[in-house]
Amino acid sequence: MIGLDTVVAELVLQVAKLTSEISQLRAEVSGSPNFVEGWATPRAAAAALKNEGVKDHRHLQRLRLADVFNEGRDIRNVSQGDRPTWEYHVPSCRKALQRHFKQLAG
Question: What is the pTM of this model?
Answer without folding.
Answer: 0.65
